[in-house]
């Protein structure tokens, strides 16, 4: 693998303490902010099929520096505060190694 920055995947698991619909609405506002940030490639928010209080957000970024810049933006802090009132979370950042998109597997 060369020294070019590799895309990263940010995985954030949420346990909602209130109403899932309220959390989804707050997350949508956060996502609107994040999708305007340079370097984001896409995201999903998925709800657990057995426990409606659990969600997972998977966001792909051009590189770790882009994600760090986005979460350092002063405008991001109000979104974080809103989500923390509604859920607890655990997050990790992963470097992409393989992907399957539109019928093909590629190595990074």
UniProtKB/TrEMBL annotation:
InterPro entries: ABM_dom, Dimeric_a/b-barrel. GO terms for molecular function: monooxygenase activity. Keywords: Monooxygenase, Oxidoreductase. It comes from Streptomyces liangshanensis. This is Antibiotic biosynthesis monooxygenase. Pfam families: ABM. Residues 8-95 form the ABM domain. It comes from the Bacteria.
């Amino acid at each position: 693998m060369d020294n070019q920055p590799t895309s990263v995947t940010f995985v954030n698991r949420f346990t909602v303490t209130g109403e899932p619909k309220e959390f989804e609405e707050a997350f949508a506002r956060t996502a609107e902010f994040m999708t305007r940030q340079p370097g984001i490639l896409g995201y999903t928010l998925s709800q657990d099929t057995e426990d409606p209080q659990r969600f997972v957000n998977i966001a792909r970024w051009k590189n770790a520096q882009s994600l760090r810049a986005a979460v350092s933006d002063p405008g991001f802090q109000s979104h974080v505060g809103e989500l923390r009132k509604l859920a607890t979370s655990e997050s990790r950042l992963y470097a992409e190694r393989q992907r399957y998109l539109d019928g093909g597997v590629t190595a990074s």
